[in-house]
Write a structure and sequence with these properties.
It is a single chain. With about 150 residues, the chain is mostly beta strands. The protein has 1 helix and 9 strands; from the N terminus they run E-E-E-E-E-H-E-E-E-E. The strands form 2 sheets. Strands 1, 2, 5, 6, 7, 8 and 9 form a 7-stranded antiparallel beta sheet that branches. A two-stranded antiparallel ribbon has the order 3-4. The longest helix has 13 residues. The radius of gyration is 20 Å and the shape is globular. It starts with 11 loop residues before the first strand and ends with a strand.
Length: about 150
């Protein structure tokens, strides 16, 4: 009888094309949804057909402990600087982001690739003198498509 090996939520890493960023603490879910188009003929109470409409991906949020590496902040600032008064993100600022699911031993299990990702939002801080915690950076990424690539093995 085959046994299922479930993915562990704690076993992941993030790779961002061209950025040297430390391991992340959290990564939100990848979510895609589609509008629905209902077709009804005159007088019908229930739709005769429901078809998929426009699709969209929800933004992905990453958090990482604050270090002396400012790549996430700099990337978000570049987006702001380049788009001031233009309203468009230059292609050079859009990156491939890989969310990599790992086995317990660190072997890659599968890889989600977020295409044309760029930071919609950046947050750093959360300072509190009464807590024994690290300062965190948070970046919210928007992207055009998410692709799943299972690892062969």
């Amino acid at each position: 009888m085959a046994s299922n090996s479930y993915d562990k939520a704690f076993a992941f890493k993030i790779e961002i094309d061209g950025l040297d960023v430390a391991w992340f603490n959290t990564c939100s879910s990848i979510k895609v949804s589609f509008d629905e188009i209902e077709y009804r003929s005159g007088g019908g109470v229930f739709p005769e057909d429901i078809s998929p409409g426009i699709g969209k991906h929800e933004p992905v949020t990453l958090t990482a402990g604050k270090t002396n590496n400012d790549d996430l902040y700099n990337w978000s600032q570049q987006v702001g600087d380049e788009t001031s008064g233009v309203g468009d993100v230059e292609a050079s600022l859009k990156k491939m982001v890989d969310i990599i699911q790992l086995d317990r031993d660190g072997t890659e299990r599968r890889r989600w690739t977020l295409e044309n990702a760029w930071p919609k939002e950046f947050e750093s801080g959360g300072w509190d003198g009464s807590k024994s915690e690290n300062v965190m950076d948070k970046v919210v990424l928007v992207f055009t498509r998410a692709r799943l690539s299972p690892t062969q093995g």
